[in-house]
Specification:
Elements lengths: L4 E4 L6 E3 L10 E5 L2 E3 L2 E4 L2 E3 L13 E6 L18 H19 L6 H20 L1 H4 L4 H16 L1 H17 L3 H15 L1 H17 L4 H16 L3 H15 L10 E16 L2 E16 L2 E16 L2 E16 L2 E16 L2 E16 L2 E16 L2 E16 L2 E16 L2 E16 L2 E14 L7 E16 L2 E16 L2 E16 L2 E14 L3 E14 L2 E14 L2 E16 L2 E16 L5 E13 L3 E8 L2 E4 L10 E9 L2 E5 L66 E5 L5 E4 L13 E6 L11 E5 L3 E2 L5 E11 L3 E8 L5 E6 L22 E8 L6 E9 L7 E14 L17 E3 L2 E3 L12 E3 L6 E5 L2 E5 L5 E6 L2
Antiparallel strand pairs: 1-7, 2-6, 3-4, 3-7, 5-6, 8-9, 9-10, 10-11, 11-12, 12-13, 13-14, 14-15, 15-16, 16-17, 17-18, 18-19, 19-20, 20-21, 21-22, 22-23, 23-24, 24-25, 25-26, 26-27, 27-28, 29-30, 30-31, 32-35, 33-34, 34-42, 35-41, 36-41, 37-40, 37-42, 38-39, 38-41, 43-44, 45-46, 46-47, 47-48
Helix pairs in contact: 1-2, 2-9, 8-9
């Protein structure tokens, strides 16, 4: 067992457990970084505790689950032992043990501290078990006087009835009852004035007597252990008697560096008449304690009155507890006030209570003030419960580097009648914090009302309004956020009907950018399978190098597995690079889709895009549909005329023009008989490009091939897949992007640099070369190979090499053949392709070839130069045809996508839908996470700042 239970928050946990016992759940409390926190019970030893917004506490904070057992006030009343039940004694025993544990640091703590911290509780329970007068000899004179007063009051039994009637009337009127009793007890206090000097002398004698020996202390410790371990009533009675005899006598201890002074004054009045008991009591407990490192003063005042008649009970109590403590580095002041009233008549219970707890604490580095007020009223009559409660908690704290103020107010009302439950609650939480780097203000309001929450309720209704607002100012940024949620729910005949409106607004500004965002969600739901939703997201962002605006609107209906949705998205963006506008984008998409229970989707959409950037300028209109139809504007109700329809051409699905819609300017191919049109029938120069049908000319009729680039890394995003080799003693260094002036704008440039003195510039003699990975080829097919190169103070060439399926070399082509070599210094390279020369050729693969690669060879320095360079960009190897005579235009490798240990690189990404799982920029701290339909952004303290999507 661990008491108290302490945890270190990890940023994700909200459920915590503890293993120590307690009397009531109200005795358990939670503190996070010295501030009390609201929590709820999951079960008897498990709680759920989170911040004001339901999020886990940030990592690294200290969370403590502790217990504050109330003092033994109820047993301070003078009762016959016959009225004490076994449950009373067991509860008092457990209460005593819990108090000992709390005030001594555990059962293994110092017994001396146990005695000094719990002397009042031990005296009280001892008096309840075996009469306080016999347990403490020092109070014999005072208690004897009280017994005499009790005897005299017994003689006045006839007058007790009148006094009883008067007290009953005062309780019913809820006025002046305590005043009358207090006046009466004040008169009795005058009669006892003469006894106080003797009482003080006896207390001094108690302090100096040293009657409790070490063996008695050991016996007390053993007694406490036996009480904790033994549950038998008979053995407990014997142990109680031993405890009473041990406590009987003088209780005082004085040890090195420790002193204790205590005064207890108790006045009691008891009147018994027939079956009616009247009791009144005033008890004052004062103690002072000092040791080497601390000083403590405490005062507890209890005023109570009680009337018992047949089955009716009236009770009133006022308790005030004050304590002050000071040590070398800490000062603490605590005040607890409790006022309660209770009426129990027949089956009707009426309760009212006011409790205030005020704490002020100062340490070397921190000052804290806290106030907790709790007002409650309860009526229980004929199985009908009516409850009302007001709770107010205020905390103020200041430290060396921060200041915190927090207020939590909670109002609840509850009616439980005829199996129908009605509840209403209003909770407001305000939090302000100021540190050296940040100022934060937050407010959270929750209003809710519910009817019918019991198990088995046929009908129930609930409504709530939640409003959350945050304002934060840091050294480098400003953030405001507001989230408003309105919801209503009705449960009728086991069918849930819900409606909700949520609006989330966020603004943020820092040194380089400004962001504004709003998300509105409107939803209605019947049961679990009928839902209608409208969601709108708006976002604007402005920075020194970018201006961006986004808007997304989605309307959606669901019924079981049937789904219908319309989504509209608009996007504008302007980017600036090096002070110059480099990219302008404007996009609009509209999509409508439905899905049947069999999972078949039906989608139609239109997209518009206009782009002007360094790489591309143009516009696009994209249509997604099974057919495109037109309507006559002069006949709005006329038939729709299809223009394009989904069909098959040569066995492949495509959009076709129905033959019935073709005019007399074009004839379908099937109208002409094969071979009916001869060359002599075609007018010279009448067949031009604008008259050719797309796709009617095959690639073997062209001078160039149209194959794709087979190289795995032709875009040179890195040097993966490229290797080097040398011959004749040549040396060099391979690198990528040697500064902006020698790198192709919008791309990448690979380079080889050689230093040293050589006079041979032949790339096939003394050389340093680079080559690609092997790629599959088809034996006997034709392939082209090329690259854009630039050379400084050297020459270079390119070639293609062939290998069989085992990787053995077969032959090569190029490497100096026509078109495959440069002259010395022919082109310098640089930022544009005009600075490079494209070298390459076309070759046929040997019949047994299965693999191929291209290589580039660099000759050495031209004497007397000792520093030469080869620049390479846009290399290409592609399949062509035998009649090709020219190199094809450069094309990147597929999509130019590379997957390397450093990550995934691709020039573009497009998909109608994707299951991306969880994407995040980091695992902790400042990061952005994308999961399904939710985007979340956290700050450096792991606190959620932005949330977009559905959650």
């Amino acid at each position: 067992m661990t008491f108290p239970q302490t945890y270190q928050t990890d940023g994700s946990t909200t459920v915590w457990s503890f293993d120590f016992p307690y009397l009531d759940r109200s005795n358990v409390f939670v503190v996070v970084n010295n501030a009390a926190r609201a929590f709820t019970f999951v079960d008897d030893h498990t709680i759920r505790c989170a911040d004001s917004f339901g999020n886990p506490f940030p990592p690294g904070q200290k969370l403590t689950i502790s217990r504050a057992t109330p003092d033994l006030i109820s047993l301070a009343e003078f009762k016959d032992a016959a009225k004490l039940t076994a449950d009373d004694l067991n509860r008092a025993r457990l209460q005593c043990l819990l108090l000992i544990q709390e005030r001594s640091g555990g059962m293994a703590g110092s017994v001396g501290n146990v005695i000094s911290g719990m002397v009042n509780e031990i005296e009280t329970i001892s008096g309840a078990l075996d009469s306080l007068s016999h347990a403490q000899g020092v109070l014999e004179a005072g208690l004897g006087t009280l017994r005499d007063i009790s005897v005299r009051l017994t003689i006045q039994e006839n007058g007790a009835a009148a006094l009883r009637d008067q007290i009953t009337q005062e309780v019913q009127a809820r006025q002046v009852d305590l005043t009358k009793i207090t006046d009466r007890l004040s008169e009795l206090d005058v009669n006892l004035a003469g006894q106080q000097d003797a009482f003080r002398a006896r207390v001094q004698l108690l302090e100096s007597s040293g009657a409790i020996t070490d063996s008695q202390v050991s016996g007390l410790s053993a007694r406490v252990g036996n009480i904790e371990a033994n549950g038998d009533n008979n053995s407990r009675d014997a142990e109680d008697a031993a405890l009473a005899s041990l406590v009987n006598g003088s209780v005082a201890a004085a040890k090195q560096g420790y002193a204790l002074a205590q005064q207890i004054t108790s006045l009691a009045v008891e009147v018994r008449s027939n079956n009616t008991d009247l009791k009144a009591q005033i008890q004052v407990n004062q103690s002072a304690q000092a040791d080497t490192n601390s000083a403590l003063a405490a005062q507890i005042t209890t005023l109570s009155a009680e009337v018992e008649k047949s089955d009716a009970a009236y009770k009133a109590a006022l308790k005030e507890q004050q304590a002050t403590s000071a040590s070398a580095d800490e000062a603490l002041a605590t005040k607890i006030e409790s006022l309660s009233a209770e009426i129990a008549a027949n089956d009707a219970d009426i309760k009212a209570q006011i409790q205030a707890n005020q704490t002020a604490q100062a340490t070397v580095n921190e000052a804290t003030a806290q106030k907790i007020s709790n007002l409650s009223a309860e009526v229980d009559a004929n199985d009908t419960a009516i409850k009302a409660q007001l709770k107010d908690q205020q905390i103020a704290q200041s430290g060396v580097n921060s200041a915190v103020a927090q207020q939590i107010s909670e109002l609840t009302a509850e009616v439980d009648a005829n199996d129908a439950a009605m509840k209403a609650a209003l909770k407001t939480e305000r939090d302000t914090r100021t540190t050296a780097e940040q100022a934060l203000a937050a407010q959270y309001t929750d209003m809710s009302a519910r009817i019918g929450e019991r198990d088995g309720d046929a009908e129930a209704a609930a409504a709530s309004l939640i409003n959350s607002a945050i304002a934060s100012v840091k050294a480098d940024s400003v953030l405001t956020q507001q989230i408003t949620t309105l919801s209503a729910a009705v449960v009728a005949n086991d069918t849930a009907i819900k409606a909700q409106l949520q609006v989330e607004q966020t603004t943020r500004a820092d040194a380089v950018s400004a962001l504004a965002q709003q998300i509105t969600s409107l939803q209605a739901q019947v049961g679990n399978d009928i839902t209608a939703q409208i969601r709108e997201e708006q976002k604007t962002r402005a920075a020194a190098d970018q201006s961006l605006a986004d808007q997304l609107t989605v309307i959606q209906s669901e019924m079981g597995e049937n789904f219908a949705q319309v989504a509209q998205e608009m996007h504008t963006q302007i980017d600036k690079v090096n002070g110059t506008v480099a990219n302008l984008q404007a996009q609009y998409t509209l999509k409508a889709q439905v899905k049947r229970p069999d999972g078949t989707p039906v989608v139609s959409g239109i997209g518009l895009a206009a782009t002007a950037s360094d790489d591309y300028t143009g516009s696009v209109i994209a249509l997604m549909a099974d057919s495109v139809v037109f309507a006559d504007p002069n006949n709005p109700n006329g038939a729709l005329v299809p223009f394009l329809e989904a069909g098959m051409v040569d066995g492949a699905p495509t959009l076709v023009v129905p033959s019935a819609r073709v005019g007399d300017k074009v004839l379908p191919g099937r109208v002409l008989v094969d071979g009916a049109v001869e060359a002599r029938s075609i007018k010279v120069n009448s067949v031009t490009g604008d008259r050719l049908v797309a796709g009617s000319i095959s690639t073997d009729k062209l001078q160039v091939g149209l194959g794709v680039n087979l190289l795995k890394n032709s875009t040179l995003v890195n040097l993966v897949g490229w290797g080097t080799w040398s011959n004749g003693g040549g040396t060099g260094v391979l690198g990528l992007d040697n500064g902006a002036e020698w790198t192709l704008a919008g791309g990448h440039t690979m380079y080889v640099r050689s230093t040293g003195a050589w006079g041979n510039t032949d790339p096939n003699a003394v050389l340093f070369g680079v080559f690609t990975e092997k790629v599959p080829v088809v034996g006997g097919s034709f392939y082209e190979y090329s690259a854009y190169v630039g050379v400084h103070r050297c020459a270079a060439n390119i070639g293609i090499e062939w290998y069989d399926s085992n990787g053995a070399a077969i032959s090569s082509n190029g490497y100096g053949a026509a078109g495959t070599a440069t002259t010395v210094g022919q082109a310098a390279g640089g930022k544009t392709l005009n600075g490079y020369v494209r070298i390459g050729g076309i070759a046929q693969a040997p019949v047994n070839a299965a693999l191929g690669l291209i290589g580039l060879r660099k000759g050495m320095n031209v004497s007397p130069d000792t520093d030469s360079w080869l620049f390479v960009t846009q290399p290409m190897m592609a399949e062509t045809h035998a009649s090709a005579t020219r190199l094809s235009p450069y094309k990147p490798s597929g999509l130019g996508t590379l997957i390397t240990p450093e990550g995934i690189s691709t020039p573009s990404l497009s998909a109608l839908s994707a299951n991306i799982g969880l994407l995040r920029t980091a695992t902790w701290g400042a990061r952005t996470e994308i999961s399904n339909n939710l985007i979340q952004t956290f700050d450096g303290n792991n606190v959620l700042r932005i949330r977009l999507g559905v959650w």
